Amino acid sequence: MENIHELIESLHLDSYLTIDDIPELDLYMDQVIQLFERKYADTKRNEEEKILTKTMINNYAKGKLFFPVKNKKYTKEHIMLISMVYQMKSALSINDIKKVLDIANNDTFDLEGLYKSYENISENNVNRFKEQSLQINAEVAEEVSSDEEDMLYKKQLLMVASFTHMSNVYRRAAEKIVDQMEEGQQSKKE
After folding, report:
1. Average pLDDT for 35-55
2. What is the CA angle 61-105-66, rounded to 5?
3. For the chain, what are the domain ranges?
4. Which of 38, 54, 97, 142 has the fewest C-beta atoms lying within 10 Å of its C-beta?
5. Which domain of life is it from (predicted)?
């Protein structure tokens, strides 16, 4: 990558839905979609990409990823859960997400407290990503000589390979935790 700082900046890693972004009043589905589209507009890969659609929300509801909606309106709690699904769906299956959010869908669970913790950790993850990206970029620069033929291509390929490898490592770790959660819930039922 010629300029890793530009790459990091172009990702708009500071775009995420906070508790303060979520209105106190209940929203209709179109309003939920608009909220997500506004908040994540800069993160889209291209103009055609959709952040959230009616079909996605309906599939999440059918998959019981969040508790039932009343009068076609989504509460603040629904929106927090949809936000977490939105973040997890690129790495985990819908079935895995359902397992992870099972207890959070209980009306006695402190979802707002969890979501605030999620916000804090997400912010730390962004900072960690920036630091690690700079480190990976430096390692790639060491591996590819500046006088090599196809130097830029080799650097870009190594960056893509490194990022996808890290993504796979994190996804596999998340899947292991999901399996442990499922085992824990199974043993409680027995």
Report:
1. 93
2. 10
3. 4-104+112-189
4. 142
5. Bacteria
